[in-house]
């Protein structure tokens, strides 16, 4: 009689283990996989962003130096009591400052557009490879105001995106 109880107990134990495994497997299949990506860190960490910014940096620095020269010229004209030249140079400075601000804005807009145009398909590819159902962008300024890091895959995405960029994709 003891052998029958042991066999029955063993049978129930095996059935419990199998049932637990099946329940865990079904639960993991039904779980929605979510990732949180810090969009600002991704943008700043993406090599394409740095490459595009470095291309515009020289041009914008040159314009900025020209503005500095105009300021010095206006100061010299005022020191020499030549108000007419100082006014003309100041007007040129105001115009150059407006052009520079516009150039900075256009450069930032162009870089943002180019980078996100490239990043969006990479994010989609990353999500599919990782089996994710949802990628949420977070930077503390949008709808995700806090994340404890459990779902944060920012560094993984930056590495993946930079690898794809270096491969020429």
Description:
By secondary structure, the chain is mainly alpha-helical. The chain has two domains: 1-31; 32-166, Protein Binding, DinI Protein, Chain A (2-Layer Sandwich), CATH 3.30.910. It is 77% helix and 6% strand. It has five helices and two strands, in the order H-E-H-H-H-E-H. It has helices at 2-30, 39-45, 47-79, 83-130, 154-166, and strands spanning 34-38, 134-138. It has a two-stranded parallel ribbon. The longest helix is centred in the middle third of the chain and has 48 residues, at 83-130.
Q: How does the SSE layout of this entry go?
A:
Elements: H1 2-30, E1 34-38, H2 39-45, H3 47-79, H4 83-130, E2 134-138, H5 154-166
Helix pairs in contact: 2-5, 3-4, 4-5
- The global form is rod-shaped
Number of helices: 5
CATH class of the largest domain: Alpha Beta
Q: What is the strand arrangement across the widest sheet?
A: 1-2
Mean pLDDT, all residues: 80
Order of helices and strands: HEHHHEH
- Share of residues in helices: over 70%
Q: Architecture of the largest domain, according to CATH?
A: 2-Layer Sandwich
Percent of sequence in beta strands = 5-15%
Query: How many structural units, i.e. domains?
Result: 2
What would you call the structural class? mainly alpha
């Amino acid at each position: 009689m003891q052998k029958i109880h042991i066999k029955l107990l063993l049978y129930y134990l095996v059935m419990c283990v199998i049932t637990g495994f099946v329940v865990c497997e079904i639960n993991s299949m039904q779980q929605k996989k979510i990732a949180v990506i810090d969009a600002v860190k991704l943008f700043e960490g993406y090599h394409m962003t740095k490459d595009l910014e470095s291309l515009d940096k020289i041009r914008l620095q040159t314009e900025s130096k020209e503005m500095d020269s105009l300021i010095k010229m206006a100061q010299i004209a005022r020191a020499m009591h030549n108000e007419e030249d100082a006014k003309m140079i100041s007007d040129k400075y105001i115009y150059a400052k407006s052009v520079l601000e516009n150039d900075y804005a256009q450069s930032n807009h162009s870089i943002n557009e180019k980078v996100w145009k490239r990043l969006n398909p990479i994010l989609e590819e990353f999500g599919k490879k990782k089996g994710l159902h949802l990628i949420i962008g977070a930077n503390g300024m949008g709808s995700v105001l806090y994340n404890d890091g459990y779902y944060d895959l920012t560094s993984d995405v930056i590495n993946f995106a930079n690898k794809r960029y270096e491969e020429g994709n």
